[in-house]
Design brief:
With 95 residues, the protein is mostly helical. The chain has five helices and no strands.
C-alpha cells in the first residue's frame, strides 16, 4: 500500500486532527506527544517484554535483543520516518 501526502491531505480523520492541532498550541503539544508515543511503540514493546522475561546472562540478553531487532527493526524505522513527517507537517501546517 503506497501512502502519499495527497492521500493524507484528503483523509477526513487527519484533517480533523490537524484542525484541532492548529486551533491552539496545547493541541499541537498533545498531538505531537501522541505521535511520538505511537512512533516508539516497538521500543515500548521491547522494554516490556524484556522486563517480563528478565534475561540472566549475556546470551539471553543478546538473543532477546536480536529477536526484537530483526522483528521490530523495520517497523520502528518506518514509524520514525512517518513520525518525523507528521511532526513537520504539524509544526509548519503546510496542509
Amino acid at each position: 500500500m503506497k501512502i502519499n501526502i495527497e492521500t493524507l491531505k484528503n483523509n477526513k480523520h487527519v484533517q480533523k486532527l490537524m484542525k484541532i492541532a492548529s486551533s491552539n498550541f496545547v493541541g499541537k503539544i498533545v498531538l505531537g506527544f501522541l505521535i511520538w508515543v505511537a512512533t516508539l511503540l516497538p521500543t515500548w514493546m521491547y522494554i516490556g517484554v524484556r522486563f517480563l522475561i528478565d534475561p540472566l546472562g549475556f546470551w539471553q540478553e543478546f538473543a532477546i535483543f536480536m529477536t526484537f531487532a530483526i522483528i521490530l527493526g523495520l517497523p520502528q524505522f518506518i514509524l520514525i520516518v512517518l513520525g518525523i513527517g507528521l511532526l513537520l507537517a504539524l509544526i509548519f501546517e503546510d496542509w
